[in-house]
């Protein structure tokens, strides 16, 4: 006859899962808000664009907030956070913590600037807006454009990202106004 099982097991040997399994967050959480009226925005397309650009940069998980705004709004953001008293194309905030395995960030993009510049250089506003999103994402990925060498590297990475999207980089347009 087999003795009954011993209910007293070594507590170190127990594999108790007292907490219910929390669901894994999706690899990419991308929130898109649009508070402007100059450029038609397809939120689903922008979410897909963000994910494709980040995957192309080797990012496997990210939480990104993307705000498409007008010039007065980006002017306020630029002034309040960067002490630049003017509108700009994109402002990027890296919200990742040291050692975080997930990229976290916020991009504020001016559709009004995209529409104005696009008209000046003869490209579609949507393509110019896409460039601003790509540019901001590359900043989140550690790329900068503070000097001539890093700016050249940024242009190459923009070209590669835009190419993966099947678009030409509108920055390469010949009549682009000086910043």
What is the β-strand count?
Answer: 4
Label the structural class. alpha/beta
Gyration radius, to the nearest Å?
A: 23 Å
Order of helices and strands: EHEHEEHHH
End-to-end CA span:
88 Å
Roughly what percent helix? 25-40%
> How would you characterize the largest beta sheet?
4 strands, mixed
Task: Give a written overview of the molecule.
There is one protein chain. By secondary structure, the protein is an alpha/beta fold. It has five helices and four strands. It has helices at about 45-55, 70-80, 110-120, 125-140, 150-165, and strands at about 30-35, 60-70, 90-95, 105-110. Helix 1 packs across helix 4, helix 3 packs across helix 4 (about 125-140) and helix 4 (about 125-140) packs across helix 5. The longest helix has 17 residues, at about 150-165. The chain is globular and about 60 Å long.
Q: What is the structure about, briefly put?
A:
By secondary structure, the protein is an alpha/beta fold. 39% of the residues lie in helices and 16% in strands.
Topology:
Elements: E1 28-34, H1 43-56, E2 62-69, H2 71-82, E3 90-94, E4 103-110, H3 111-121, H4 125-140, H5 148-164
Parallel strand pairs: 1-2, 2-4
Antiparallel strand pairs: 3-4
Helix pairs in contact: 1-4, 3-4, 4-5
Features:
16% strand; 179 residues; 5 helices; single chain
């Amino acid at each position: 006859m087999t003795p009954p099982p011993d209910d007293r097991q070594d507590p170190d040997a127990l594999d108790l899962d007292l907490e219910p399994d929390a669901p894994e967050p999706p690899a990419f959480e991308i929130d898109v808000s649009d508070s402007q009226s100059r450029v038609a925005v397809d939120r689903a397309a922008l979410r897909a664009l963000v994910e494709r650009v980040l995957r192309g940069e080797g990012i496997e998980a990210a939480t990104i907030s993307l705000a498409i705004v007008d010039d007065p709004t980006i002017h306020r953001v630029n002034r309040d956070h960067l002490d630049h008293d003017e509108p700009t194309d994109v402002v990027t905030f890296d919200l990742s913590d040291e050692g975080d395995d997930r990229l976290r960030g916020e991009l504020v993009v001016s559709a009004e600037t995209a529409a104005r510049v696009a008209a000046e250089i003869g490209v579609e506003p949507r393509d110019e807006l896409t460039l601003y999103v790509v540019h901001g994402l590359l900043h989140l990925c550690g790329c900068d454009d503070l000097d001539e060498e890093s700016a050249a590297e940024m242009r190459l990475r923009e070209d590669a990202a835009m190419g993966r999207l099947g678009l030409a980089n509108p920055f390469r347009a010949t009549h682009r106004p000086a910043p």
